[in-house]
């Protein structure tokens, strides 16, 4: 069954002075999606998100929202959640007060907001610090409070701009689970990030952007089908890795030196293992040999490289 | 969620964030401590000034003058040697006066010029008058008759502007300046501080900039007025206690409470403070760092405008006065001032008030637009030119 599209973006453009921050991009998000907006720093992710949140206006293009029971206009505050890239909360006020206020301006009644805030604070192991001033909390914990503020009012659609930045690996893992949990409870998620390894574990759709331009827009399985059928080998040599000689092999797409003895070799799509082994047999001193799947990170780097060239 | 509910949420948030009754009471206690210290300090200083000042008078000065000076000075008659010593020690002691006489000319020696010299001058003038009267044989009664002022019956056709009403108008203008100054500090914390803490993006993703701006203006205005209210109540209680202690009738206080005037003054003051808070909010919206911004100096603007309206008391009926009482940035204090010192038609009061309210309505809209276009600027502060350009582009 096709899911209903709740956000449609067509031909979006935004120019700052002589730079195209967003250059004619189009995409759509369906109900229940975890839509990942991926790109390097300065790619145009945050600008696009700010346009979606109606904080700045696009020069061209249309944005249509289609949340249940509402027209095509910008959704009510109560139905949207937003974690901005630029984090900030009231440092000199108790955590619980800020959370209740932020839920309040998104239409949640005070008693309900307080209960929801305590529920999330417990979940994030911060319940005992509810009445402390925010400035007393560590940066990581302040990040958690910011995350709670964006989803406390149980929005139908939440936009998380760089939700993993500032977290240690343990908390990043936790946040993947939180995002999955709110998505399971019916919240559609649009997130922007550049931690591809984390994103590919939670997203079902990806949009790759570079210099404001679309590089890819589609489902996660599809991006692997289209760009991921490459063999990647990790090779270690006794002495210096022969980078130049390996690059000269016609079927090699890219060679990345990990250090002076180790390299990562990406082969052209469709290159057979049998052929690869035959070619490598001509090299002396290989000490380690392993294959790996072409990751989202690799696909992204490859697409960005091709786009820039 | 409609405008009014969000407005109420933001307004109450700002109000509870800044108005702390505990802080107000601490402020009042500190003020009372300074008042008590000031009161007793000035009483002591005043008492000290009542004491007779010492004066050394040369022994050849006329006895009649010495007698006259004794009324207000502690006179010591000194010989030439003592006079020399007095002058020699003057740089050390730095106080006291020495009076010598050479015919009709007096010489006064003092470390520096002071109020005592002027006082001494009055006695010397009096002495000289007496001497002159004696010389021309003029009786004192005749001199008083000559100097008697003309008899004038004063008939005024505008009598409403009583002293009490003038004081009320000045009180409300002062209240407006105080409320604006109190609000101003909060305005910076609420707007510029929020930008510095990068909270703004979170907030305006949930509410429209206009709601945010209106909530802030109202919440901070309410904070300013709450502080003023507390100080007013304490002033009234203090006044009542003062009148009780000094035995003056309580009607002395009640004479100030002319309800129609109070309602008029209060209406202009409330809308005036709202207007100024809107202007200040617009300025605060483009300031990224209040400590280093030249735009922070604009905070003196309200006192200049209110101060200018005091000029009306001198000539309330000329064209400048009429203009000031209509022009919104002045009218909140200027119209009440004119009202108490001259005859102002009801339609002038109403027209001026409508203009003031309209100015508030549009300036708060402008403040929200300025905020909206400068919302994400955290680096270099935009110039006024940048702001006008951004406003133009945002259309």
Automatic annotation (TrEMBL), chain A:
Domain of life, per lineage: Bacteria
Any GO MF annotation of the entry: ATP binding
Alphabetically ordered keywords of this record: ATP-binding, Nodulation, Nucleotide-binding, Transport
Domain ABC transporter, chain residue ranges per copy: 7-236
SUPFAM superfamilies according to UniProt: P-loop containing nucleoside triphosphate hydrolases
Pfam families: ABC_tran, DrrA1-3_C
UniProt cross-references to InterPro entries, sorted A to Z: AAA+_ATPase, ABC_transporter-like_ATP-bd, ABC_transporter-like_CS, ABC_transporter_ATP-binding, DrrA1/2-like_C, P-loop_NTPase
Transport in keyword set: yes
Magnesium listed as a keyword: no
Family: Belongs to the ABC transporter superfamily.
Protein name in the entry: ABC-2 type transport system ATP-binding protein
Organism expressing this protein natively: Natronoflexus pectinivorans
TrEMBL record, chain B:
Pfam families tied to this protein: ABC2_membrane_3
Domain ABC-2 type transporter transmembrane stretches: 28-359
Keyword Transmembrane among record annotations: yes
The entry's keywords: Membrane, Transmembrane, Transmembrane helix
Subcellular location field: Membrane
Bilayer disposition of the protein: Multi-pass membrane protein
Cellular component per GO, a single term: membrane
One of the record's GO molecular function terms: ABC-type transporter activity
The keyword Membrane is annotated on this UniProt entry: yes
Transmembrane segments: 25-46, 167-188, 217-243, 255-276, 296-314, 321-339, 345-363
Name of the featured protein: ABC-2 type transport system permease protein
Organism: Natronoflexus pectinivorans
């Amino acid at each position: 069954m096709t899911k209903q599209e709740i956000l449609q973006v067509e031909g979006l453009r935004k120019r700052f002075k002589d730079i195209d921050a967003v250059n004619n991009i189009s995409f759509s998000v369906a109900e229940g999606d975890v839509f990942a907006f991926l790109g390097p720093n300065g790619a145009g992710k945050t600008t696009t998100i700010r346009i979606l949140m109606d904080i700045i206006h696009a020069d061209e293009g249309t944005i249509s929202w289609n949340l249940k029971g509402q027209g095509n206009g910008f959704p009510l505050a109560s139905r949207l959640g937003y974690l901005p890239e630029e984090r900030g909360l009231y440092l000199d006020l108790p955590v619980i007060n800020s959370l209740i206020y932020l839920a309040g301006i998104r239409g949640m009644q005070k008693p309900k907001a307080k209960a929801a805030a305590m529920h999330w604070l417990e979940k994030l192991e911060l319940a005992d610090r509810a009445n402390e001033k925010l400035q007393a909390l560590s940066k990581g914990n302040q990040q958690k409070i910011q995350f709670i503020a964006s989803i406390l009012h149980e929005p139908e659609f939440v936009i998380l701009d760089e939700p993993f930045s500032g977290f240690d690996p343990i908390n990043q893992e936790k946040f993947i689970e939180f995002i999955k949990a709110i998505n399971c409870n019916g919240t559609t998620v649009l997130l922007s990030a550049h931690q591809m390894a984390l994103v590919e574990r939670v997203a079902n759709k990806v949009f790759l952007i570079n210099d404001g331009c679309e590089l890819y827009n589609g489902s996660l399985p599809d991006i692997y089908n289209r760009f991921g059928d490459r063999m990647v080998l990790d090779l270690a040599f006794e002495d210096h890795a022969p980078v130049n000689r390996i690059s000269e092999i016609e079927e090699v797409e890219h060679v990345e030196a990990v250090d002076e003895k180790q390299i990562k070799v990406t082969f052209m799509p469709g290159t057979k293992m049998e052929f690869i082994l035959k070619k490598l047999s001509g090299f002396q001193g290989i000490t380690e040999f392993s294959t790996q799947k072409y990751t989202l990170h690799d696909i992204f780097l490859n697409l960005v490289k091709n786009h820039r060239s | 969620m409609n405008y009014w509910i969000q407005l109420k949420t933001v307004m109450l948030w700002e109000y509870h964030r800044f108005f702390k009754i505990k802080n107000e009471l601490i402020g009042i206690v500190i003020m009372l401590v300074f008042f008590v210290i000031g009161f007793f300090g000035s009483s002591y200083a005043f008492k000290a000034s009542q004491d007779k000042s010492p004066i050394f008078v040369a022994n050849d000065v006329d006895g009649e003058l010495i007698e006259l000076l004794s009324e207000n000075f502690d006179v010591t008659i000194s010989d030439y040697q003592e006079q020399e010593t007095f002058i020699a020690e003057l740089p050390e002691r730095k106080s006291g006066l020495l009076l010598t006489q050479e015919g009709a000319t007096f010489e006064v020696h003092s470390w520096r010029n002071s109020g005592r010299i002027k006082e001494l001058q009055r006695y010397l003038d009096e002495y000289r008058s007496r001497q002159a009267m004696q010389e021309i044989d003029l009786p004192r009664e005749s001199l008083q008759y000559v100097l008697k002022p003309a008899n004038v019956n004063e008939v005024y056709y505008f009598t409403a502007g009583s002293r009490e009403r003038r004081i009320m108008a000045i009180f409300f203008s002062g209240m407006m300046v105080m409320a604006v100054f109190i609000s101003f500090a909060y305005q910076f914390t609420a707007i510029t501080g929020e930008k510095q803490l990068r909270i703004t993006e979170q907030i305006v993703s949930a509410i429209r900039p206009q709601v945010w701006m209106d909530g802030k203006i109202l919440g901070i205005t309410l904070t300013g007025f709450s502080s003023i209210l507390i100080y007013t109540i304490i002033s009234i209680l203090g006044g009542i206690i003062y009148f009780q202690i000094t035995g003056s009738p309580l009607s002395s206080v009640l004479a100030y409470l002319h309800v129609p005037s109070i309602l008029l003054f209060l209406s202009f003051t409330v809308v005036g403070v709202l207007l100024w808070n809107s202007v200040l909010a617009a300025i605060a919206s483009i300031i990224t760092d209040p400590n280093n911004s030249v735009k922070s100096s604009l905070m003196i603007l309200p006192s200049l405008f209110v101060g200018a309206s005091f000029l009306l008391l001198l000539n309330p009926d000329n064209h400048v006065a009429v203009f000031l009482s209509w022009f919104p940035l002045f009218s909140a204090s200027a119209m009440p001032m004119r009202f108490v010192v001259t005859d102002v038609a009801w339609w002038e009061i109403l027209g001026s008030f409508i203009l003031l309210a309209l100015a508030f309505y549009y300036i708060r809209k402008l403040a929200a637009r300025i905020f909206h276009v400068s919302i994400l600027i955290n680096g270099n502060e935009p110039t006024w030119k940048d702001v006008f350009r951004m406003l133009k582009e945002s259309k």
